[in-house]
Amino acid sequence: MKQVVVSSGIRYDLILADHKNGLKYLRQVVRHHVSGQMKVAPEHCQDNVLACMGKPGRESLLRFRDLFNKMSAAEGLKQFLTYYIIAAHPAVVSRICRP
């Protein structure tokens, strides 16, 4: 095997929560394991809906995006993120949680 590429499924919230190794891990992923585009799953953009989903707020995604872009630029790499968004989360649809 010559190279392993991460195209999706990375947990940006866990990377940010790992104060010991999170940035080192992200730097290695950015340097060696992104083919130009990587998908992350914030799943929504409103903090109250994210809270109903048990997800961190959007500030976490924005911080990760900034780190990813900064590290990519420092390496001279043209890489970008794309996002998975859920259009109709069951908690919102059933009105348990309001957007």
With strands numbered from the N-terminus, the spatial order across the biggest sheet is 1-2
The ordered H/E elements are HHEHHEH
What count of domains describes the coordinates? 1
Mean pLDDT: 87
Q: Regions with pLDDT < 50 over 5+ consecutive residues?
A: none
What is the C-alpha radius of gyration, as a whole number of Å? Answer: 15 Å
In this structure, how is the largest beta sheet organized? 2 strands, parallel
The helix/strand class is: alpha+beta
* Helical percentage: 40-55%
How far apart, in Å, are the first and last alpha carbons? 46 Å
Strand content: 5-15%
Query: What is the approximate shape?
Result: elongated
Q: Give a count of the beta strands, DSSP E runs of length 2 or more.
A: 2
Count of runs of 4 or more consecutive helical residues? 5
